[in-house]
User: Which sequence fits this backbone?
């Protein structure tokens, strides 16, 4: 039976200038056409995450080097997606129409829409067996940042890792990934989230509202500040001689970038500032872990497509628990 004809128009949240969540407008756009190496997806779920928010607000001016100096080059955000393949480019062999996939694309974005294109060879994989679109969609954004940072720190069996900000998308991913690498994990979060973070496999949890983690004994091979609220100088004493500090933020006056660059020149604990990357092998790895039951994204809430702006305001309070999923 021939595949049903695709519509020519789609609904999409677009942004034509940088600014607060209100710059997002519900629009109608043509359904994109796949190039030879692309797949076209009917998007079923996306997330409102800090990557999309960062590009939209352009709070860090440096992001404009990628997204457009004066105005956004790509009008549709949405780097994290789950959906069904509805068309494939002439050279695509990895996927076929009808496949259910999830992934991450911060080169072209596009998941804030009913249809999007992504490279078939990029950060995309089939859904884990038995997982739905909404279960799977948050398996990449925070999780791949955490994965890059744990790899850069050389975490291996027996490493001791402290994750500050374990409730966030990155932090909750970091706890599970570090456990999977055989590390002993101490997580830091607020009182209401202690049990939830313990359930992710953390070996011990420090309640940041009652205890200052910096006054607790270490040492750690890695202090990972997954919410960018601490400083290297205040955490250095917690690190082993070869230990490292990684933060998800640039730090005051960009100090984490600078200290990361000169870190290799000095002895003792150092700062690392790895640049995040994602490959198809990474996404396949997250899928295998999900299927094995060792990785499950923490979901704060699931909202409808028309609630995306309100969800964005919520994410920007900095208080979400893991991930905010949007059904499309
Ligand atoms: N610019 C970009 O492209 C980009 C992309 C991704 C991430 N990031 C950065 O990475 C960081 C993490 O993002 P995320 O999405 O994983 O998580 P998130 O949504 O920023 O983290 C939310 C959690 O952080 C904890 N938190 C909030 N304020 C805190 C504080 N003052 N001290 C300690 N913990 C606090 C809270 O949990 P508890 O109350 O349980 O502690 C909250 O539930 C953010 O700073 C974000 O800006 C930036």
Assistant:
């Amino acid at each position: 039976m021939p595949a049903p004809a695709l519509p020519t128009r789609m609904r999409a949240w677009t942004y034509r200038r940088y600014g607060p969540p209100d710059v997002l407008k519900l629009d109608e756009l043509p359904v994109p056409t796949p190039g030879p190496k692309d797949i076209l997806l009917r998007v079923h779920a996306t997330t409102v995450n800090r990557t999309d928010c960062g590009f939209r607000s352009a709070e860090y001016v440096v992001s404009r080097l990628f997204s457009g100096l004066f105005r956004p080059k790509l009008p549709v955000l949405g780097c994290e997606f789950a959906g069904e393949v509805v068309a494939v480019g002439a050279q695509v062999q990895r996927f076929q129409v009808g496949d259910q996939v999830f992934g991450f694309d911060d080169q072209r974005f596009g998941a804030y829409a009913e249809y999007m294109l992504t490279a078939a060879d990029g950060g995309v994989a089939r859904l884990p067996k038995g997982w739905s679109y909404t279960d799977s969609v948050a398996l990449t954004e925070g999780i791949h940042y955490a994965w890059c940072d744990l790899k850069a720190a050389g975490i291996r069996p027996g490493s001791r890792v402290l994750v500050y900000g374990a409730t966030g998308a990155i932090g909750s991913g970091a706890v599970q990934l570090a456990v999977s690498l055989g590390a002993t994990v101490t997580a830091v979060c607020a009182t209401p989230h202690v049990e939830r973070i313990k359930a992710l496999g953390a070996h011990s949890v420090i309640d940041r509202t009652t205890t200052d983690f910096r006054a607790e004994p270490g040492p750690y091979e890695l202090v990972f500040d997954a919410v960018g609220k601490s400083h290297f100088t205040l955490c250095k004493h917690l690190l082993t001689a070869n230990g490292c500090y990684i933060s998800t933020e640039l730090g005051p006056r960009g100090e984490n970038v600078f200290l990361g660059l000169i870190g290799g020149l000095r002895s003792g604990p150092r700062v690392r500032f790895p640049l995040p990357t994602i490959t198809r092998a990474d996404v396949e790895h997250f899928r295998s872990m999900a299927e094995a039951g060792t990785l499950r994204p923490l979901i704060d809430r699931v909202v409808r497509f028309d609630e995306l702006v309100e969800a964005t305001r919520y994410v920007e309070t900095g208080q979400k628990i893991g991930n905010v999923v949007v059904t499309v």
Q: What stands out?
A: The mean pLDDT is 96. The pocket of NAP is lined by residues 49-51, 54, 142, 165, 167-171, 189-190, 193, 208, 226-229, 248-249, 318-321 (CB under 6 Å).
